[in-house]
Amino acid sequence: PKPQNAITVAVSSRALFNLVEERQIYEEHGLEKYVEYQQNNENVILKPGPAFYFVKALEHVNARLLELYPDDEERFDVVLMTNNHAQVGVRLINSINHYGLTIERFCMTGGESPIGYLTAYLTNLYLSADSDKVQEAIEAGIASATMFTANKDVAYLDTQLRVAFDGDAVIFSDESEQIVKEQGLDRFFEHEQLNENKPLAQGPLKGFLEDLGKLQKKFYAKNERLNCPIRTYLVTARSAASSGARVLKTLRSWGLEIDEALFLAGAPKGPILVKIRPHIFFDDQMFHIEGARQLGAIAAHVPYGIAQKYRKTT
């Protein structure tokens, strides 16, 4: 699809594939040895990385869209966005072709940061294993997250893209989280009830949820709601009774639907995520990311909002 019509997802090579061993060679022996190793092993297929099954699920959605709307270009376009050198490209191409992935656009920046290219590629979502680059992208106003590999292998559905979002500082701004951190839970509950009818400001991943919603409506228009290949989840530490109404009313005011809303009232998110088995779970707090990873969920850290300040100072 033409970039202006597509929902562009930029994925780094270390998010798409498992390059832990190669990264170690680079860090211990330098760039020349790294490039030499990659060229000597260019016919050795790379193993899947944390974003691999997410990308596979995006491609399944594309296939279904093409069946229903053969002439419509509003679908996902995956771009490999990496600071790898071009000499490594053959191994990446061989691995992509081996798995039957449709990734036609590469951006290989030869050691320079690829962040400046994200805007040029009209990127809707950027996924990387490099937290510094993700932070840079978030500061540039691009929806971004750092990918983490799960500590256990879990089987993922190939026929339905499942995306789980935390609420505050992910879909919504960190306005309410600031009150929790600075004034405590009682003040937070009071604030949320007083402002129940005032929509929350948008957070960094609101646009991507909106993109998913647009595609879902294409399936609904063809009477495919019950067979939709996209399902979205809100997995929040908020309590439904004391602070849930504002969240749901905010989504309604934006004209957005969420398929499932799970209000956990502070309970761990990991067990719920194991049940959902999302291809990706976005959260702004690393202790939720770690809890998800321990139980086998693929998690992506969104470095946005006041939680990052507390993380750096504790």
Structure description:
It comes from Picathartes gymnocephalus. GO terms for molecular function: 5'-nucleotidase activity; magnesium ion binding; nucleotide binding. This is 5NT1B nucleotidase. It holds the Pfam family 5-nucleotidase. The protein has 314 residues and is an alpha/beta fold. The protein has two domains: 3-147, Rossmann fold (3-Layer(aba) Sandwich), CATH 3.40.50; 161-311, Rossmann fold (3-Layer(aba) Sandwich). It contains 14 helices and ten strands. It has a ten-stranded mixed β-sheet with strand order 3-2-1-4-5-10-9-6-7-8, with helices on both faces. β9, α13 (286-294) and β10 form a beta-alpha-beta unit. The N and C termini lie far apart (46 Å).
Determine the fraction of residues in helical runs and give it as a percent range.
Answer: 40-55%
Chain-averaged pLDDT: 92
CATH class of the largest domain reads Alpha Beta
Question: What value does the Rg take, in angstroms?
Answer: 20 Å
The computed structural class is alpha/beta
Strand residues, percent? 15-25%
